[in-house]
Amino acid sequence: MEIIEAFRALRGMRVLGALFDGTLRAATLDDLGYRDAGAWSNLASVYYGATRGRTLQRAAREAAGDLSLDALRVVEKHTKKLLRGAAVSEWELRVELCALRGTVAEIDRLAAARVREYNRAVQDAAKKAYGRRALRGGKNTDAQGLRTFTVTGPERIIEGVLSGVRAEAKQLRRQDPKLGYEQAMFDAFLATGGQGGGAAREMVVTVLPLAESTKVLRQEGDETIFARTDGTTITGAELVAEAMVSEDYVGVFDPVKGGVNLYRDERFANFKQRVLLSAETIVCPHPGCTTPASECQVHHLTAWEKGGNTNIEDLTMLCQVHNARNDDDPDKPPKNGTMVREPGGVVHHPPDGGPPRRNRHPIRDLSAMALARS
Ligand SMILES: [Zn+2]
C-alpha cells in the first residue's frame, strides 16, 4: 500500500510546484535516476514562472488537478504545435488541454485532435504542415548493425505511401507465409521504392452524414470535416476535389436507418457489410487501439460456432491482435474480455467484470455511429 501512496504523491502540479519553489531540486532527481528531471524543471517554469498570462496560468494549474507528469508533458507537446494565427492563445489552449482526463495515451490523442482542429482553421495550415515534412535519423548504427530513419509528412501523403506498401506486403506474405508482417513491410518498401506497388491498395470510405451530403454535393460546407476508414480526415472541399480522381467510396449515413447508399455498385454482400462496419467504427473499437478499419478483420460478436449470424449487428471490424485476443467461448474462464455491441456502438467488456470501456480515439467522433447518435 505504501508504494501506491508514493506514486499518488507524485501528481504533476505538486512536483512542479516543489521544483519551482526549490523544496525539490532537479539535480536530486537526476541522482535518483529520473531521466525526465530536466523536462520537469522546464515544465515547472511554464506553470509557475513569470508570464503575462498569470490568470490563465493559474486556471491551467487548477484544471490540471491530479494529472500525472507524463500527461502534463503530453499537454505541453501539443501546445507547442499550435500554429500562429489560431483562434486561441497558448495559455487558453493549456487550460483546455489540462482539463482532459483519461490514460496518457487517450489524452495524447484527444489533445492532438483538439490542436489539429484549431490549426486547421489557420490560413495556409496545409502549406505550413507541408513545410514541416522531414526525413530524419539513419545516422547511428545500433548494437545489431541496424539503422532507423523516420519520415514525417501530411497524413494523406504518408497514408497514400503506406497503403501501397501494405498492399505489396500482403502479396509478399501470401507468397511466403513465414515472412513476418514488419519484415514484409520492409521488403515491400524496398521493392516499391516508397511509391506503393502495383498491388491494389486498400479501399477507403469517407463517412458523410445524410444532412451534410447535399451540402458537399452543392460544394458548400467546405470547412466540415469527415472521417475516412483509413484513419485520416478530409474536408468537404478536399472531398469534392478527390471525388473527381480517386477510386475511393463515399458512404452516406442516415441517423435512423444507418447506411443509405454507397456510391458505386456493391460487388458482393460481404463487401458492403465490411464497408458499413468500417464507416461505423473508423478504427478498431478496442479501447486504446489505433488500427484503422481498412486494416481490420470482420469479427463475429457471437462466435459462428455459438450460433452467431452474419447479420450486420452481429459483426464488427476488429484488428488482428484484438480479434485473436477476444474471449470467443463464453463457457471458458475469461482471459482478455469480449467485444459486445451495445446501444451506441461496440464496447469492450473487461475479463474482471468491470464496467465496459469504449475506444475514445478522437477520430471516432466522426464515425458513422457517432454521427448517427448526435
Ligand atoms: Zn485493435
From TrEMBL:
Residues 323-374 are annotated as: Disordered. Residues 271-324 form the HNH nuclease domain. Keywords: Endonuclease, Hydrolase, Nuclease. Residues 324-334 have a biased composition (Basic and acidic residues). The keyword Metal-binding does not apply. One of its GO terms (molecular function) is endonuclease activity. This is HNH endonuclease signature motif containing protein. It comes from Corynebacterium nasicanis.
